[in-house]
């Protein structure tokens, strides 16, 4: 049985698929972090029009399926702009933009729990609002948000499965290809599912370590995961 | 050139708070036409019933609350002029909060050092040296690497004072520095303030620590309902306040502290 399990070609597909899944997830979380921070700060300090625009942005990315967002990016936007863009590149950005919609909420929530007193303290020593954000508010907010990032990372990793539908060779698309040749269904999907599981569990453990290492001594925060 | 380190001229500040019923808005006139002058080396103490607006006035002095009307001067510079760089002004004023407000993710040393690096732009060694000097001043050198949550209330407030004095500001404003502490911890903070007083530090203090006031304050200011009701020497207040309201208040406070 299961000759396919020893076929180096299949393992090549699986590893390439895994690397695409991992890259898109990590890049998505990172872009989401940068953009989510800007959105959170804009939502707290911006004028009404900016806050309204941010609300629309967030509702779009949280309120519509990632599947739809990926299809719009890959099939609707390039013809509209009359350009050709690599699907993988588009996928990177869709995941980042999507993640920003969620991370804005996490970061803003964390900022609001500390903003009042810490901003006053920052201003009182002569720092500007921006210096206080940079050196006081965000370093504390990010520490609080780490468990939410772990959730975000798990969720995004699994969401990369939609990329198989637009021809990107992710982990699921490797499974589809192997299944199409070998006509084994359960073992292939158990293997693919298992790889997700191992990667997500391992990475979550790393995130827990990071959380423990950087948490503010003497303050126990509620883990959300 | 003015003689004053700081001066408030006819300052007004009102704020709104939500009432008990939904949609109810209560307007609080916390500061109504308050004027005050502080010379170099002065120690003045503001006291009065809670909710009278003392803290709001003190926050106006640091422009943490922006006055509705009136002027605040730091030396010759008017802080209430629109468009002024308030950060530069606040760099010259120390502020100590009732609830301390240390930077929670930084050690005691980090709390004191940060503004020296980021505001005064001192080189690393210089900032470290001055931060250590400030921490020595408040006698807290044994826990410089502890985080705020690992400090006792009294230790934390002394770090708060070190953070305020490290920049060698022109004046230090202290908003009830001992009233959030357990009674047995107020002594160490008072000792620190007494040391500062003996070194000639210019201070405006909101406080009800009467024995301390009697010892170090040149002037006491009785504040109620957004006004300065009466100003005088500690001896004057302890012996015979001029106004009935101050008299009643002093009676209550002295009975409480000597009981």
Please characterize this protein's 3D structure.
The complex is a heterodimer of chains A (225) and B (259). Helix content of chain A is 80%, strand content 0%. Chain A has helices spanning 8-45, 48-63, 66-81, 87-124, 129-159, 171-182, 186-214. Chain A is flat. Chain A has a single domain (3-214), classed as MetI-like (MetI-like fold). Chain A contains seven helices and no strands. With 225 residues, chain A is an all-alpha fold. Chain B is an alpha/beta fold. Chain B has a single domain (4-258), classed as Rossmann fold (3-Layer(aba) Sandwich). Chain B is 37% helix and 26% strand. Chain B contains nine helices and ten strands. Chain B has helices at 54-61, 86-90, 108-118, 124-137, 153-165, 183-198, 210-216, 234-239, 244-258, and strands spanning 4-18, 25-39, 43-47, 69-74, 77-78, 93-96, 171-175, 203-206, 219-224, 227-232. In chain B, a hairpin with a 2-residue loop joins strand 4 and strand 5. In chain B, helix 3 (108-118) crosses helix 4. The model of chain B has no long low-confidence stretch (mean pLDDT 92). Chains A and B meet through helix 4 and helix 5 of A and helix 2, strand 6 and helix 3 of B.
Write the layout of secondary structure elements.
The complex is a heterodimer of chains A (225) and B (259).
Chain A: H1 8-45, H2 48-63, H3 66-81, H4 87-124, H5 129-159, H6 171-182, H7 186-214
Chain B: E1 4-18, E2 25-39, E3 43-47, H1 54-61, E4 69-74, E5 77-78, H2 86-90, E6 93-96, H3 108-118, H4 124-137, H5 153-165, E7 171-175, H6 183-198, E8 203-206, H7 210-216, E9 219-224, E10 227-232, H8 234-239, H9 244-258
Parallel strand pairs in B: 3-8, 3-9, 6-7, 7-8
Antiparallel strand pairs in B: 1-2, 1-4, 4-5, 9-10
Helix pairs in contact in B: 3-4, 3-5, 4-5, 5-6
């Amino acid at each position: 049985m299961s000759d396919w399990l020893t076929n180096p070609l299949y393992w090549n597909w699986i590893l390439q698929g895994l690397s695409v899944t991992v890259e898109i997830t990590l890049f998505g979380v990172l872009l989401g972090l940068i953009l989510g921070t800007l959105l959170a700060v804009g939502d707290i300090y911006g004028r009404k029009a900016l806050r309204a625009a941010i609300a629309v942005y967030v509702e779009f990315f949280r309120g519509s399926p990632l599947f739809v967002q990926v299809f719009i990016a890959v099939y609707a936007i390039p013809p509209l702009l009359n350009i050709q863009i690599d699907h993988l590149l588009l996928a990177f950005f869709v995941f980042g933009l999507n993640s920003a919609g969620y991370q804005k909420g996490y970061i803003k929530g964390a900022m609001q729990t500390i903003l009042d007193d810490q901003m006053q303290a920052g201003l009182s020593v002569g720092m500007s609002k921006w210096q206080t954000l940079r050196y006081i508010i965000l370093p504390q907010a990010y520490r609080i948000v780490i468990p939410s990032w772990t959730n975000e990372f798990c969720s995004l990793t699994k969401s990369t499965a939609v990329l198989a539908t637009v021809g990107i060779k992710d982990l699921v698309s490797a499974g589809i290809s192997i299944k199409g040749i070998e006509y084994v269904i359960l073992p292939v999907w158990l293997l693919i599912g298992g790889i997700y599981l191992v990667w997500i569990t391992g990475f979550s453990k790393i995130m827990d370590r990071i959380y423990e290492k950087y948490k503010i001594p003497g303050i126990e925060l509620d883990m959300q995961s | 050139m003015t003689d004053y380190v700081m001066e408030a001229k006819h300052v007004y500040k009102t704020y709104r708070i939500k009432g008990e019923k939904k949609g109810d808005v209560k307007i609080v006139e916390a500061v109504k036409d308050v004027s005050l002058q502080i010379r170099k080396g002065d120690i003045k103490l503001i006291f009065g019933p809670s909710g009278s607006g003392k803290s709001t006035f003190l926050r106006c002095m640091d422009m943490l609350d922006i006055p509705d009307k009136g002027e605040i001067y730091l030396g010759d510079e008017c802080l209430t002029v629109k468009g002024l760089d308030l950060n530069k002004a606040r760099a010259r004023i120390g502020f100590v909060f009732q609830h301390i407000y240390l930077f929670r993710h930084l050690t005691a040393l980090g709390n004191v050092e940060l503004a020296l690096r980021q505001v005064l732009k001192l080189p690393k060694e210089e900032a470290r040296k001055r931060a250590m000097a400030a921490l020595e001043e408040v006698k807290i050198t044994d826990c410089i690497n502890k985080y705020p949550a690992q400090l006792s209330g009294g230790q934390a407030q002394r770090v708060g004072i070190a953070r305020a004095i490290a920049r060698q500001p022109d004046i230090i404003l202290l908003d009830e520095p001992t009233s959030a502490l357990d009674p047995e911890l107020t002594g160490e903070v008072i000792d620190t303030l007494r040391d500062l007083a003996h070194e000639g530090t210019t201070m405006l203090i909101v406080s009800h620590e009467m024995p301390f006031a009697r010892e170090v304050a040149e002037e006491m200011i009785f504040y109620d309902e957004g006004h300065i009701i009466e100003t005088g020497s500690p001896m004057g207040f302890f012996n015979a306040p001029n106004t009935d309201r101050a008299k009643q208040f002093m009676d209550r406070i002295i009975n409480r502290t000597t009981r």
